[in-house]
Structure formats: C-alpha cells, structure tokens
C-alpha cells in the first residue's frame, strides 16, 4: 500500500510539472502582449511624456494622478456689509450673497476649479477639483453604465424569454433582433444624430410635433439630462440584442423537465420564473453583466460622435488628452484609472453573483 501511494503521489507531481511546462508558452505570450504594455502604461503615467514630441521625458511620480483626482470642499461664507455687518441679500431674489468659488478655492500650489455647488444644513458649499472635466467624465461614465446596463438586462431578459418560446417565425425573429448589434457603432451613432436634429428634419422632433408635443425644436443633445438620456438610448438600442443573445443561450441550457416538475407541484409561471429560471440563469446573467459593464465603462465612440468635447466619457477624455493635448503621461494616468475602475467592477460582480464558487 505504501509503495502504491508513493507511485500515485509521484505520478501527480509529474502531471503537475507537465501542466506548468505546457502553460509556459501561454504565459510568455501573455507577458509579451498584455503585462509588458500594461507596465509601460503604468510607467508612462508617472512621467510628463508628450505624444509625438521631442521633449525630454522626466519622471514626476504621482503628479498626474494628483492633477486628475484632487478634490477640495470649501464653504461659501455669506458676504456682509462693511459698515453694518448685516448679511447682504440679492435685491431681486432676496437670496444671501455669498463668496464666489473662484475667490475661495486654492490656486497654489495647484489650481482648483469649481466642479459643483450644493447646500447642506443651511450652508452653501463648493466642490473644487484640479481637473473637473475628468471627475465629471467619471461620473458620466458610471451613470451611463449603471442605467444602460440595467435597462439592457431587463429588456434583454424579456426578449430572451419571448424568443425562447416556440412560435411561428421564431428563427426569423432571432435573426432580425441582432440587426442593431451588427450595425457599426459609429454608423448607428450617426443615424441617431440625424434623428436627434433640433428641428423638424430630425425624426423625433417631427414625430413629437405631429403628436402636438413641443414646437419641433427640441435640442436633445444640448442640456445635461437630455444628453445623457440620448447616450443611454443609443446604447440600449444597439446592445440589448447582445444581452438577449447571451441570456437566450443560458435559457436553452435549462431542462424542460424542471418546468414540468414545477407545474406538477402547482407552481404558476411567475413562481417557475423565480424558483427555476432565475437561479439557473445566474451564471449566464453574470457573464452578460460582466461583458456589458466592462464594455460600457470603456464607452468612447457614442460620446465622441454625438457630443464631441461638450461632454466626456472617461475614454473620450483620454482620447482628448492624448490626441488633442498630446499629454501622453496624463493620458496614461487616465488609462490606469479606467483599468482600476473596470477591475473593481469585475471583482464586485464576481463576488456578488458567486461566479467564483463551484457549487
């Protein structure tokens, strides 16, 4: 028995060594095409390197990250009359006149600019940032990701459940639903840009005016709320079919016998959905959520085509810094931050949905 056990352990060790040897080519390729370029980006983010420039590169440590991420909260004090000491008020609105953000935010050793103002407990505060455009791009991207992925998951699940049923023309329906996803993103963005035109040339203004809503001059791409709604609408239209396709693949792995057993036990359709479909669909749902969330966090083309520099996503801001300002060091720091945020979302999904468990 002892010799047999030793032979088994020896065989297991040989197999383990063989597995490591077989992994060596893959590890070398991964090192060349992924780890080394990523390391270069990390290093470049700590320099003042300029893109397409002969300027000498200097190591500046975390200065790029400090410029991108530094925030400052400052209270705006009420202004008082120099003679009476009374609080000054606006003659028209009767609101308290307060300090201007530009007067209270620090300028040295690094300049802060106004990001946002808010009121709390009767006081007025201003949030200053050394790079408010980047902070706003992070907020834009996360808002876009959360809302668009939620809508795509909800609509995609509904579509997947519909086309999973047996009905005449199901094959044609499954094929046609992929058309929006097959359209190149830049092309679909241009199509939507035409539909969003702020006069009756645009489809939406034409339809709304015909329905008696508005005067046919709604500018969907001008204000903050309508801009974000437009971006989400374009993304949901294009990528919901992809979400539906992944969920449909998961639905087809669920045996029909489970539904038959649940029906015999007296479970209605809703109960079958909650007790059978959702638990068994969780792995496919996790894959779909991870894919779409990571893709949404890297959104570039829709923002770039429809909004340009009027509103940034993290990726379009990265493009602006690299191509527009030729600031490769700062752009690299933006890329590292995007990587960290995406990595954090992926880990959160894996932990929350239990994808890392074998049960």
UniProtKB/TrEMBL annotation:
Secreted keyword on record: no
Source organism, top-level taxon: Bacteria
Q: Where in the cell is it found?
A: Cell membrane
Which keywords appear in this protein's UniProt record, sorted alphabetically? Cell membrane, Membrane, Transmembrane, Transmembrane helix, Transport
Location (main, coarse)? membrane
Which GO cellular component term is one of those annotated?
A: plasma membrane
The topology of this chain with respect to the membrane is: Multi-pass membrane protein
GO terms (BP aspect):
transmembrane transport
Q: What is the protein named?
A: Sugar ABC transporter permease
> Which family is annotated?
Belongs to the binding-protein-dependent transport system permease family.
What InterPro entries does the entry give?
Answer: MetI-like, MetI-like_sf
The residue ranges of the ABC transmembrane type-1 domain are: 138-349
Residues that span the membrane, as ranges:
20-39, 142-163, 328-350
- Tell me which species this is from: Isachenkonia alkalipeptolytica
* Signal peptide as annotated in the record: none
């Amino acid at each position: 028995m002892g010799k047999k056990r030793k032979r088994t352990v020896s065989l297991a060790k040989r197999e383990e060594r063989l597995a490591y040897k077989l992994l060596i080519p893959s590890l070398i390729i991964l090192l060349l095409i992924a780890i080394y370029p990523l390391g270069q980006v990390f290093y470049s983010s700590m320099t003042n390197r300029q893109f397409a420039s002969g300027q000498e590169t200097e190591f500046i440590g975390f200065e790029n990250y400090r410029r991108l991420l530094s925030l400052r909260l400052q209270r705006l004090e009420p202004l008082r009359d120099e003679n009476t000491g009374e609080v000054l008020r606006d003659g028209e609105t009767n609101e308290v006149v307060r300090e201007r953000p530009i007067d209270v935010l620090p300028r040295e050793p690094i300049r802060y600019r106004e990001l946002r103002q808010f009121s709390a407990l009767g006081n007025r505060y201003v949030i200053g940032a050394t790079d408010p455009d980047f902070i706003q791009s992070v907020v834009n991207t996360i808002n876009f990701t959360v809302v668009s992925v939620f809508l795509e998951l909800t609509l995609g699940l509904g579509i997947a459940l519909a086309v999973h049923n047996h009905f005449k023309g199901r094959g044609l329906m499954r094929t046609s639903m992929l058309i929006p996803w097959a359209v190149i993103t830049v092309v679909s963005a241009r199509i939507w840009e035409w539909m969003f035109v702020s006069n009756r040339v645009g489809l939406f203004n034409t339809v709304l005016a015909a329905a008696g809503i508005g005067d046919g001059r709604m500018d969907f791409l001008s204000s903050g709320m309508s801009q974000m709604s437009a971006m989400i609408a374009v993304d949901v239209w294009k990528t919901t079919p992809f979400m539906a396709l992944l969920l449909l693949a998961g639905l087809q792995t669920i045996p029909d016998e489970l539904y038959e057993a649940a029906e015999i036990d007296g479970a209605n359709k809703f109960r079958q959905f909650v007790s059978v479909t959702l638990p068994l669909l969780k792995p496919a749902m996790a894959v779909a959520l991870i894919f779409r969330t990571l893709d949404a966090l890297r959104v570039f083309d829709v923002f770039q085509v429809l909004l340009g520099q009027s509103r940034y996503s993290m990726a379009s801001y990265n493009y602006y810094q690299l191509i527009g300002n030729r600031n490769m060091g700062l752009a690299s720091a933006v890329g590292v931050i995007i990587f960290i945020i995406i990595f954090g979302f992926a880990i959160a999904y894996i932990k929350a949905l239990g994808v890392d468990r074998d049960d």
